Amino acid sequence: MNNPAHTDKPLLDAIAKRWSPRAFSEREPTDDELELVFEAARWAPSCFNDQPWQYIVVRRGEPEYADAVAGLVAANQAWAGGAPVLGYSLARRAFSQTGKPNPHAWHDLGAASALLSIQAASIGMMVHQMAGIVADVVRERFAVPDELDVVAGLAIGWPGDPEQLPENYRARELAPRSRKDRAEMLVRFK
Amino acid sequence: MNNPAHTDKPLLDAIAKRWSPRAFSEREPTDDELELVFEAARWAPSCFNDQPWQYIVVRRGEPEYADAVAGLVAANQAWAGGAPVLGYSLARRAFSQTGKPNPHAWHDLGAASALLSIQAASIGMMVHQMAGIVADVVRERFAVPDELDVVAGLAIGWPGDPEQLPENYRARELAPRSRKDRAEMLVRFK
């Protein structure tokens, strides 16, 4: 299934069709496909080119998959707990070179994750990011060093049949995607 | 001039060719081109679909352009102070619906700005984001409400001739783009 953006502008196809499904098919990404997606993140811009992003990526079937599921809040486990790939995005709070705080670490991680989501969408693979995680559980299960923030979860795979979802998620999966008007984004306050 | 990513993966062309020039040509984006670019940002994913991003966009020649230049640190004024379009990205710190703090506001703004940069690159237009801004000056000159963080500056236009840059920036403009190895991004700590 697809759920493209409702736009009358000639957006890049991968930007228009990227969305965040909850139902995933059984198809497993190949190593090449995952490497392609994270290569896109690698080329994101960042403050001082610090590249403050890191990712934990776990395939269904790996021993650590249960740990990855445990890091999600229950409401997300309900649909993401069987996704072909689960991941967590991490932000390094201090600049590598100077050790000073990097206020743009989360911003730049957001850029990297956006690029990987677009690259994924270009081959039909979708990335559903989740704020609904238990960062402390992720930190403990994956021994994440203190200098990294655990920022978001990622469920990765090809969209599947909404019928496989718990009932309360089915209608949402099919609902048209919505956004505020563009005029609300482009502002002048005086 | 171009400065593409050095990648052996078949990245989306717009992701591979996106970069952050300092030299801009005289070409002015049309309204259509700017709308296209911000339409891409509009469709970024965000926590609770809150869309915590806003943008101030000023064209060279508008009365507010001097205010936009004033919001940059001197080192950025030196090259960006004449860009065809200058902008600032803003993040709403609290969720619209609940008023509770949104820890992902900067992260989600980063995603939106990444999407607009990729959409721009798809038509050859480049967006150079800058952390080097004076947020208080931007807030004052543009009367930015307190509930919004001023996060980054944006210089927007088509790449120009590096010879027009101050001498200390010329070599940097031509230097190959570099990133850490992909293996440093994809981590397992145990």
Q: Give the CA-CA distance, first to last residue of chain A.
A: 44 Å
Assembly annotation? homodimer
Q: How many H/I helices of chain A? A: 8
Strand ordering within the main sheet of chain A:
1-2-4-3
Order of helices and strands of chain A: HHEHHEHEHEHH
Mean pLDDT of chain A: 96
Q: Quick one: which chains have the greatest interface?
A: A-B, 69 and 69 residues
CATH homologous superfamily (4th level) name of the domain at 31-159 in chain A: NADH Oxidase
Give the C-alpha Rg of chain A. Answer: 17 Å
- The helix content of chain A, as a percent range, equals 25-40%
What structural class do the secondary elements of chain A suggest? alpha+beta
Q: What top-tier CATH class of the domain at 31-159 in chain A fits best? A: Alpha Beta
Query: Using DSSP, what is the number of strands of chain A?
Result: 4
Architecture of the domain at 31-159 in chain A, CATH level 2? Answer: 3-Layer(aba) Sandwich
| Largest sheet descriptor of chain A | 4 strands, antiparallel
Strand content of chain A: 15-25%
Q: Which parts of chain A are unreliable, with pLDDT below 50 for 5 consecutive residues or more?
A: none
Annotated CATH topology of the domain at 31-159 in chain A: NADH Oxidase
The best one-word shape of chain A is globular
Structural summary, described in words:
Chain A is an alpha+beta fold. Chain A has a domain at 31-159: NADH Oxidase (3-Layer(aba) Sandwich). Chain A has helices at residues 13-17, 31-42, 65-70, 74-80, 105-122, 135-142, 167-174, 182-185; strands spanning 53-59, 85-92, 126-130, 148-157. In chain A, strands 1-2-4-3 form a four-stranded antiparallel beta sheet, with helices on both faces. The longest helix of chain A has 18 residues, at 105-122. Chain A starts with 12 loop residues before the first helix and ends in a 5-residue tail after the last helix. The model of chain A has no long low-confidence stretch (mean pLDDT 96). At the A-B interface, α1, α2, β1, α5 and α8 of A face α1, α2, β1, α5 and α8 of B.
